[in-house]
Amino acid sequence: MSERVDNEKAAQILEEIADMLEIQGESVFKVNAYRRAAENIRSLGRDLSSMVQDGSIFAVEGIGKAIGEKITELVTKGRLEYYEKLSQEVPRSLLEILEIPDMGPKRVKAVWEKLKVTTIEELEEAAKSGRLAELPGFGPKSVARILAGIEERKRALETHRIPLVSAWILAEMVKEGLLGLPGLRIEVGGSFRRKKETVGDLDFLVSSHDPEAAVERFCSLPMVQKVLLRGSKKASVLFKGSIQGDLRVIERSRWGTALQYFTGSKEHNVQMRELALKKGFSLSEYSFKAVDGGDEILCAEEEEVYAFLGLPWILPELREGRRAVDEALKGNLPNVVNEEDLKGDPHVHTLWSDGFSSIEEMVLSAKEKGLRWIAITDHSAALAVAGGLDTARLRSQMVEIDDVNRKQTSVRVLKGVEAEILADGTVDVPGDLVDELDIVIGSLHLSMRQSREEITRRYLKAIRHPRVHIIAHPTGRLLGQRQGMDADWEVIFEEASRTGTILEINANPYRLDLPDYLAALANEKGCLFSIGSDAHRTSQMELLHFGVSVARRAWINKDRIVNTWELDKLLDWAKSKHDRL
Ligand SMILES: [Zn+2]
Ligand SMILES: [Zn+2]
């Protein structure tokens, strides 16, 4: 079976088609139609396959009949004949050349036709031998930029994206290494600050009275494998583990514009610049400047940048794509959740199944975090590999929970279970004890390779179970290891919304499941969410932090997140599921 085509994959293919058509010298009109379609698919916020199924894909702006049919073919068959035909006419390696600076489609066409260059290696050879400079339009400066771009690319290939949590550990070590610099202020920008689930590089923004010392310290940090570039106020390094780090020393008086600029996203910054221009100013990483001349306006704090444009400060997690500025102008930014808003953790494992800490230890950890309740949700019997609990052991665990609750009152311990959703959708809830369980999580660890239809049916059945309160890590993905399951998420979310079944944002940084874009979709459907640490040892309760980021990136209001509720409200909600079916 061919690989599933999701929104991102479809957008990539449409972009490649646009590139290939442009290299072939097709009309701008046709090329742009594909580019627009790719952009629109990326900003859909809906699962493409369900839009193909109900035909609503044809109603999307910029997607006409011809492209709509191609998308339908691509999504239903997993392949597209038109794309395959184009790929035979235009060598794939030419598309890679497009990524080199100064090499737009027209120039790629020129080197292909006139120099028979089809790969980056051949382009490098042509540049070094002087053949490239003989082509009209390729001056010495341009050739130099192309060569530099090829070098840059070789470096980029040595690096890769790492999970946010690994980037976070690295960033903390770097920050520690720079401590003590005079007048130090430090912040990490880019996708790290926007809390994307993976990070490709780390942008350290630093202000200090001694820029040279900052550069010196940065380049000689123990985790630096190689210094790539070293200037008086900036540096680039390759860290061990092969992600790139950039340091920029910023003047204190320009900190606000610089931090705003280097946080991105690209689209958000375009939107900010457009708004500035409407008010008669250009905005750069350095300052605002009146378009008709006059002094620069400096912003020492990021808040000032937003305030100057009549906006409230926008949380970095909301700065993805083109939306934040529009909504901010309308006063529609979400009331996002903070870590301090979380009153409890509904997904905790212990020694009773595959955890490494006791119930009491987990309680202590929760207390330190300022939580007022936790739900002990060890695996059910069906997940034997994880030491799932049969009825007898679950009963003994309940006795221990009662005991812990008697001994201390700072953290209320709830009785729960992470019950397996079996291949036919039955949920492995221990029948005799069901009335004594406060929280039942339904989740799926087995038979994950079923078809989209089967997975969907399985989830729908579990959601309609009167005792299943939370669906945990719905896609089952593991970052960098396992793609999530395919399912009709729209239908699943609608049913979860209707029945008040809570969807988990699993905070384990290798899961982050629901992922932000699906959490956003569920949010639009009116779903409720829980943020679960899924802690298997005491230290992992800290991971709730990463779940909070996902909820923010999905624009979820905090009152939709059950961890922020009073416990009684949550328990009532769980008990009353019957009435919502
Ligand atoms: Zn699980
Ligand atoms: Zn779990």
UniProtKB/TrEMBL annotation:
Domain Helix-hairpin-helix DNA-binding motif class: 55-74, 95-114, 130-149
UniProt-listed Enzyme Commission number(s): 2.7.7.7, 4.2.99.18
GO molecular function: class I DNA-(apurinic or apyrimidinic site) endonuclease activity; DNA binding; DNA-directed DNA polymerase activity; phosphoric ester hydrolase activity; zinc ion binding
Any one Gene Ontology cellular component term annotated for this protein: cytosol
SUPFAM superfamilies recorded: DNA polymerase beta, N-terminal domain-like (SSF47802), Nucleotidyltransferase (SSF81301), PHP domain-like (SSF89550), RuvA domain 2-like (SSF47781)
NCBIfam families per the UniProt record, alphabetical: PRK07945.1, PRK08609.1
Identification of the protein by name: DNA polymerase beta
UniProt lineage: Bacteria, Thermotogati, Synergistota, Synergistia, Synergistales
